[in-house]
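Hi there,

I know you've been waiting on this one. I reran it after we fixed the sequence typo, so this is the corrected version. Both the input and the resulting structure follow.
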Amino acid sequence: MSAPVTTSTPVLAVQRLWNIVPGALLSFLLALLAVRIRDATGLAALNPVVVALVAGILLRSVMGLPDWLQPGAAFAVRPVLRAAVVLLGLQVTAGQLVSVGGGALVLAVAAVTMTIPFAVWFGRVLGVRPKLALLIGTGTGICGASAIVAANQVVQGEQEDVAYALAVITLCGTASLIIYPELLPLLGLSTHTYGLWAGSSLHEVVQAVGAAEAGGPVAVQLGTITKLARVVMLAPAVLVIGSLLRRGRGAPEHVKAPVPWFAFGFLGLIALGSTGLVPPSAVAASRAVVPVMMAASVAALGLNTSLRALHAHGVRPLALGVGTTLFLSMLGLLGALAL
């Protein structure tokens, strides 16, 4: 009787890599297309992450998701996203956070620690699925799309939950970007107060900075640093959410959540960047690479998302997103006025 034929480890590794290439390549092509669309239009509201999501969903609705694309799409959704979150740490330093002052840091922490529980509670009132409510709260409280896709590594919601949360956050954040500058003269806010308000309550970094520009350079500086303080809360928030989910106490559902090791990498690069040893070129490279990696991950998510499943969620999650956005906006305004 002849011995069974076995495949060597290197051959298996090459086969796995080859299986990953098509889906991952398609995801990155959609991401680059999304970045080009944003750059060509000059519209900051066209977040490449959201454009890539829409492109992925539309492509899925036209051609489905063939078997030969699935391994690469799965790879882009998880490892690529985690690597992007880690690299995001290069863009924030401890010195930047200290420069804005203790009061603003407290406001940033309050924005995160109060908004997420509010979203979970309000979602329960509205009858929104707990995981979806948690994702919407995380995106609203921390940093929009990046926070949603990062938090889902421990929340482990359905693909449609993530896609719907991204859509809701984008709609609410874009509306706030348009409304805030109009409210500035009506509310009679000082430059300092307006910058703190924008940074403590708008979802995406680009939205916070864009809205703060209406208040001038000082407002932009305060808005940017306050917003970055909320971005730093991404890693601690994911760690806490994961811990609660593992313990099954205070969590939206009793599930097993993995330890988010990528969050430690994120904090590690913040610490490294704070030493001054990281070349400015490396920081600039991360600013160029991270949006593409994020967009590729979300494009792959779109490839796995069914429009029919999205429609089944109804309008309640949208009401949750609007309500949570209003809650954070009022919280940020009161905090900024107090400071």
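Quick highlight: The longest helix spans residues 9-41.

Best,
R. S.
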